[in-house]
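Handout, page 2. Input:
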Amino acid sequence: MKAVVRIIDEPSYEPQEIRSRVKMLFEADGLRFRGRSVFVKPSFVYPARPPLNRGVNTQPEFVGGVVHALRDLGASRIWVGEDFLAGPSALAFYGMGVLPYLKGVAEPLFLKNEARVDVAVPDALIEGLFRLPKTLVDADLFISLPKLKVNMHTGLTLSTKNHMGLLLLEDRLINHDSGLQHKIADLYRARLPDYILADAIAAGEGQGPMHARPVSTGVIVAGRNGVAVDSVSCRLMGFEPEDVPHLVCLHQKGCGPLAPADIDLEGESLLRERGRRFSAPRLDFADCPSSTRIFVGTQKACPEGCLGMLRGTLDHWASRGSWGPLEEVGFVIGKPQAEEPHGTRRSRTFVAGDCAAPYQELGTFIPGCPVPPLALAFALARKGIVARPLQTRLSDLAAGRMMSLFRRPRKAKC
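Output:
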């Protein structure tokens, strides 16, 4: 039997409309929730209030519509689980302003605080044991709510990539290098989702995942089989699923189809009408000021690891057109170096990642394989070169906290 994937028209982030459409999807695919517990996993990469992150995160109105649909259909208990890499998990929920959408319906689950259980993956490609949240393992059903966007580490962020947010930071960084695509395929098989609802009302292109620009696609992509949903999502974004290594691995493991002939697609006209080629992230540094010296290893500099971490760090300033603080700053990553790094003072040179360790005497050394997210940005701040970076705005955290206590969410359009 072919995997069924549905693309439905959803032009705006209106929670009640999303609630109605999601109920229709659940019922069309025969899901039964009455008396069952449900773990829901959105993606809060850059926790800030909309519309700043429309192309980056699963939107709070989308999450709200889904959890209300689940409650309408009789789910006995609903958890919404997510984390925040740069601080307590609760900051992701406050920064997103999502808590009012959950009040009285679903429980926020701060994954950094959750008990973990070991889950083994048979016939693993690279990583055969994962520490997953116990609540996820115990839940009757698992619903994944990815945001469709491009990603400089993995090409695309789809439902299979959404599993990475289930891991603690120290576990996430293991094999976050040239082995990352295999790691994603292994992790996905540790707990298959029972249903996927992809937020493509506004998708993301450009310098994703952190700085993706919103694209008004105006659809939800849904189905029971994550590989099939991701295959259709690839084509919606102008890519071929055969070019995404972790999807190829999962297909080879029998987890789902890639070819259109093997997928029963409802909404093919929307795929043709709304689909287009998304701009992919750039991983070069040609747009940097000439005085910013960047030395990249000729054989080992992983886009999945340190190369992507450096480019993502610089995008914080590139996206604002404010390169000024980074002029006359040097960065060394990867190995071997074609030439001895030069041209910047030691106090303004940063050697990032274990591959570049032979050059650590040239400046501030940041160990790791890869360097952790935000490590480069915080190193720049400690040297007084840039202001201390925040992954979410204090005003958003404060507003999100106040909303969770006193306010009902407003209706919102895309």
